[in-house]
């Protein structure tokens, strides 16, 4: 396999891609987008099997041993991982005065420390190959903040500093680390919103609508492409203009 893929006019060689939380929602759309361009795609799932054309491994990002076992299984099945998309995430919204320490740390543990566990484990193979793509799924809330979301916003803002630090450490080894910051996307995570609240949010979005998961997925495949080889430590909003200027 060549070390660089310099142009989209060349037929890209398939790579091994791991998407955490790829069994549903945005993660599933990301996994499908990589499959559609011919890559070998593995997903972690805590609950259930992914589509037939992806390799599903059990994996809980809050558990280092589980992450290690999942990545090892993918490496044994497909070989070293070229692209990792750290997508698994949770919300546990609560006003600050009512938020317990566990409410706070459990969200940090999944969204931020979970990403650390996955990236630290997968980057080993990338360092050896002197090539790799790391894409972290953050949120517009990490940049804007959100009432009732101090835990979630802190976890998602932390991903920006994390990606930029990884960029400084590993940029010279052909590895990029970028952040995607979605706004409101139509998934189970946003299905729980009351219709009135959803309408209120939609009025604040310049695009006037929530996005489909595929709109986030296309940005992830682009960040993992050769065309994005010189983009690292960036935060790419996919939010219909909601977070402009942040
Ligand atoms: P969903 O709730 O639909 O899916 C979340 C995914 O994360 C599931 O696959 C879930 O697995 C997985 N997951 C959660 N906890 C863990 C864990 N401990 N270990 C492994 N996997 C875990 O959410 P979305 O698809 O909407 O969100 C995906 C990402 O996008 C998240 O990081 C979210 O914060 C972010 N995001 C979403 C937005 C939206 O509007 N929907 C907006 C901005 C960001 P399981 O099925 O086993 O629970």
Description of the molecule:
- This protein has 246 residues and is an alpha/beta fold.
- The protein has one domain (16-184, 213-238): NAD(P)-binding Rossmann-like Domain (Rossmann fold, 3-Layer(aba) Sandwich).
- It has helices at residues 25-36, 64-78, 101-129, 141-144, 150-170, 188-191, 195-204, 213-223; strands at residues 16-19, 40-45, 55-58, 83-86, 132-137, 175-182, 235-238.
- It has a 7-stranded parallel beta sheet with strand order 3-2-1-4-5-6-7, with helices on both faces.
- The longest helix has 29 residues, at 101-129.
- The radius of gyration is 17 Å and the shape is globular.
- It starts with 15 loop residues before the first strand and ends in an 8-residue tail after the last strand.
- NADPH dihydro-nicotinamide-adenine-dinucleotide phosphate (NDP) is lined by residues 20-21, 23-27, 44-47, 59-62, 87-90, 110, 114, 137, 139, 182, 184-185, 187-190.
């Amino acid at each position: 396999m060549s070390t660089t893929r310099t142009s989209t006019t060349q037929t890209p060689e398939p790579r091994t891609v791991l998407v955490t939380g790829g069994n549903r929602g945005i993660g599933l759309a990301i996994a499908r987008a990589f499959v559609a361009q011919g890559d070998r795609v593995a997903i972690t799932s805590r609950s259930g099997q992914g589509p037939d054309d992806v390799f599903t491994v059990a994996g809980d990002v809050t558990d280092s041993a589980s992450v290690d076992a999942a990545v090892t299984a993918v490496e044994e099945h497909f070989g070293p991982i070229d692209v990792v998309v750290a997508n698994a995430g949770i919300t546990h919204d609560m006003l600050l005065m009512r938020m317990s320490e566990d409410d706070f740390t459990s969200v940090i543990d999944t969204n931020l420390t979970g990403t650390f566990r996955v990236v630290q484990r997968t980057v080993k193979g990338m360092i050896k190959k002197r090539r790799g793509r790391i894409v972290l799924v953050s949120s517009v809330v990490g940049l804007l903040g959100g009432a009732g979301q101090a835990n979630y916003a802190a976890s998602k803002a932390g991903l920006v500093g994390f990606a930029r630090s990884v960029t400084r450490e590993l940029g010279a080894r052909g590895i990029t680390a970028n952040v995607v910051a979605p706004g409101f996307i139509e998934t189970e995570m946003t299905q729980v919103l009351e219709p009135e609240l959803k309408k209120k949010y939609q009025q604040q979005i310049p695009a006037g609508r929530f996005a489909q998961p595929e709109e986030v997925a296309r940005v992830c495949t682009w960040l993992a492409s050769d065309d994005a080889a010189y983009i690292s430590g960036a935060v790419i909003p996919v939010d219909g203009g909601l977070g402009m200027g942040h």
